[in-house]
Amino acid sequence: MPTYDLESTLDLAKARISELQLQMTTGQLTSVELVSVYLARIAALDKTGPALNAVLEVNPDAMQTAQALDAERRRQGPRGPLHGIPVLMKGNIDTGDKMHTTAGSRALANWYAQTDAFVVKRLREAGAVILGKTNLTEWANFMAENMPNGYSSLGGQVRNPYGPGTHDTGGSSAGTGAAIAASLAAVGVGTETSGSILSPSSQNSLVGIKPTVGLISRTGIIPISFSQDTAGPMARTVEDAAILLGAMTGVDPADPATGSSLGVALSDYTAFLDATALKGARIGIPRDPFYTELPEAKQKIMDSVIAQLTELGATVVDVDLPKAALGEDINVLVYEFKSAINAYLGSVGANVPVHTLAELIAYNEAHSAEMLRYGQAVLLKSEETSGSLTESAYIESRLRDLRATREEGIDRLLTSHKLNALLFPNNWGAGVAAKAGYPSITVPAGYTPDGEPVGMTLTGTAFSEPTLIRLAYAYEQGTHHRVEPKL
Fold it and tell me: Using omega within 30 degrees of 0 as the cis cutoff, is the peptide bond preceding 148 cis?
């Protein structure tokens, strides 16, 4: 096996999926060689060098899987655009193989899921190589009130490749964000309940898609909320994110939410890569509080985003979201987490020391030096609920959230102003789309004077991913803001 150094492999490592497929089709590259390149970069950058600490573990079967896919390509051609492409999965997604599923907690350090999550099955069927699992904010940032983005007791602190130890990683899919930004895999999968794809994508100068709840199955993903959880793609380009999204969709009998995607989910979103899509588009901007509270350097970047959208043919309209849609309470998550996590932990093996939320809290307390560096206030608050979702406070919060963010919020603005999407800086509007269960896409928009990435995020109504991809691709192609981190 040849030696791969960072400089000689960077062009290949950062190449778009379509470029990698062309090289494999013409015999210039194999999946085995591609896996080797990414493994070499993980070895050089993750625990040494800038020490990004983004990867929890590497799949011991990755090389053999790549060999099998190379042989299949020679026999009968590729399955599709992901054939032989290495993908990193967030550490809260089940893989029924030799890798653990931990959510970053030492309490699950010995847990091997018995089956693949539905989304992992879909990726394997598409020919993807599951390269490894990424670090994350512990329990997807639903454990403590002041835990830093990207920290877990099992994996330690993820570091942003654009400023290791300086710039925030975003959370909770921080490991996926840092890894894909540093080209440790072709693309990655994150999960979001409220901002956990959009935040690390914008902080790591990536494209991230938070899909409509129900477009992608949640089966086999360590949960927070029945109402808001979803997996989604994280990539260096809109094209790659669209390719990955198409491979992840599908109706799952075990996840009733996916039934709503029947007839609207697509297996190919690349048809919407339209570089002229901003011509004639109408985009709404809820400035207050999303712009007024931005630091000055980021305000200037968002001002330039508005100017660029206009230059590319869009009409930009100021709009106001109702105050009820801007509420920052997490009542729904607090109530749903206990029920959701008890159901998941109840299925883990006897070798795992926790099978309920109460047992997890007790385990953390018994190992407080390792587990409770930032406390567990959120877990304690959730344990105080009944777990039956019968409390009036929960039901009223859920109904209020839906009404405020859908009928009176996003849908009202899109309809009354004849808009294609709403615009937000970074993940600042993530909570609105999260409570509605609606999609968003974030795209690199520039960098502050000290090199911190800034993203612009577009949000639409249910299952408007095609529209958002069109608009985001047109902005990306019209600006080309993203630059590689200097590692």
Answer: no
Helix, strand and coil in the chain, % to nearest 5: 40, 15, 45
90 is a catalytic site residue: yes
Taking CA atoms, 316 is separated from 276, 284, 290, 430, in Å, by 16, 6, 16, 20
Is the pTM here over 0.85, yes or no?
yes
Which residue of the set 36, 90, 105, 133 is catalytic? 90
Point out the catalytic residue in the list 31, 105, 153, 172: 172
Largest Cα span, the chain = 63
Q: What tokens does 117 get?
A: 């999550």
Is 3.40.50.1820 the CATH classification of the domain at 6-262?
Answer: no
Coil vs helix vs strand at 162: coil
User: Residue 454 — φ and ψ, nearest 5°?
Assistant: -130, 135
What 67-72 contacts at long range (C-beta under 8 Å, 24+ apart), as own/partner pairs, is 67/31, 67/32, 69/31, 69/127, 69/129, 70/30, 70/31, 70/32, 72/127
Which one from 196, 217, 339, 440 is the annotated catalytic residue? 196
The per-residue pLDDT for range 33-54, each reduced to its tens digit, is 999 999 999 999 999 999 999 9
Mean pLDDT of 316-342: 93
Burial group, residue 282, by CB count within 10 angstroms (0-12, 13-18, 19+): middle
- Domain extents in the chain: 6-262
